[in-house]
Every structure is written in C-alpha cells, then in structure tokens.
Amino acid sequence: MTSTDLSIPKTAKAAILNGLGEKYIIRDDYPVKQASELLPGECLVKIEYSGICHSDLHVKQGDWQKKPILPLIGGHEAVGRVVAIGEHSDAGTVKIGDRVGLKWLAGVCMKCEMCRKGNEPCCPLSKAHGFTVHGTFAQYVVSWVNYVTPIPDNLDSAAAAPFLCAGVTVYNGLKQSRAKIGDWVAISGAGGGLGHLGA
To answer: Do 69 and 132 contact (CB within 8 A), yes or no?
Structure first.
C-alpha cells in the first residue's frame, strides 16, 4: 500500500474469538471504525503483516488468571500503515501514511507510579492488543498514536513483526540488566526461542 491509498472500507476481514477454547471465526464483514469515529489519541492502522505468538494460544485457551475480553480479535505483533488519526489527537510525530508496528502493549496512562518509573507493562490501566483490546488478526486495527512504533520502509514486514513481541521481551531483559558496552551477557533460547533476537 502506498501512503496515497488511504481509503477506509466500511467492513473488512478479521479473525474473531467468541469463546475461550473455541476456534477463531474468519469474518469478511467485520465493521471498520471510521476516521470520524476515532477518539482523540486513537489511530486506525491498515495491517500489512501480522505474526502469531505463543501467547495468542494462551489467550485463546484462557490459560491465564486474567481472561481476555470476548468476543476478541487476537494478535499483538503486526506492521501496517496509519490511515486515520482521531480528531484532536496529540499525534506527536505520527502522521497519516506512516508505517508503524503494533505490539502487545497498546497503551498506558503515563501518570501512575509504574509508568513514571519506566514499568509501563505494570500500569493498572494498560491496554493490550489481542487481550484487553482488539488485536492484529484483522485488516484494520484501532491503536493509539502514542504507542505505535515507527517501522522503516526498507524493513520487511515479516522480519519486523517478531521484534514487536519477542524482540521487545529480549530488549527489556537486557535493559533491566543494566549491562554496558563491553559487558558479557548470557542469552538463553538463542537457538530459536526468544534469545535469537537478542544475539
């Protein structure tokens, strides 16, 4: 898609999970939130590529103590282009036509103690794609302008998507270790688990 192809259909394809342990149902007529319906801070992203993470299976099966919203569009690692931004949004550097990535963490309050200390995943008001808000198993996804990640045009979407989940997990571990240039670190799972993204 080029940045000039920004038309937004009324409906599009999405994979819907209606109940825990059930199969995803592919719908061709899932309603797409229109530009005029976006709230301040929201953006609509046309997905180019969505990966699948093992966490998606845990969400589908309801394996965790906290359960997902239902019905749910799953997925939380994708690359696409911003096709609309909610009116009165403080979009920062994000603009229509930008190529962005969507990850597990969809948004946080940025006001609580956890956010102020850099522990955004622990924010009590956090939103998670494919868990507490609809995710990336759809052609069009609502996200938040302050939480989409810029993706360079020359980076292949299939290569970029895993970095938005497993790559962030490895990065966060390295960041919290406070390792400095020249330090040695051991990265487990480097044979094909999360660790290969940290090598």
So the answer is: yes
Q: Is the peptide bond between 71 and the residue preceding it cis, with omega within 30 degrees of 0?
A: yes
Contact 47, 79 (CB under 8 A): yes
Give bridge partners of residue 17 from the DSSP assignment: 72
What is the 8-class DSSP label of residue 133?
B
Q: Write out the two tokens for 125.
A: 């008001």
pLDDT at residue 66, rounded to an integer: 94
Contact at 8 Å (CB) between 102 and 148?
yes
Give the whole-number percent of the chain exceeding pLDDT 70. Answer: 88
* Contact call for residues 52 and 74 (beta carbons, < 8 A): no
How many Cβ atoms are within 10 Å of 67's Cβ, its own excluded?
A: 13
**CA nearest 149: which of 77, 100, 107, 106?**
100
Residue 4 · residue 132 · CB < 8 Å: no
pTM: 0.85
User: Can you point out the beta strands (E) in 32-172?
Assistant: 42-50, 72-73, 78-85, 99-102, 105-107, 127-128, 140-144, 149-150
Phi-psi region of 58 (alpha: psi -120 to 50; beta: other; left: phi over 0): alpha
| 119-159 confidence digits (pLDDT tens) | 888 899 999 999 999 999 999 999 999 999 999 999 999 88
The confidence band for 114, taking pLDDT boundaries of 50, 70 and 90, is very high
Sign of the four-CA dihedral 175, 181, 183, 187: positive
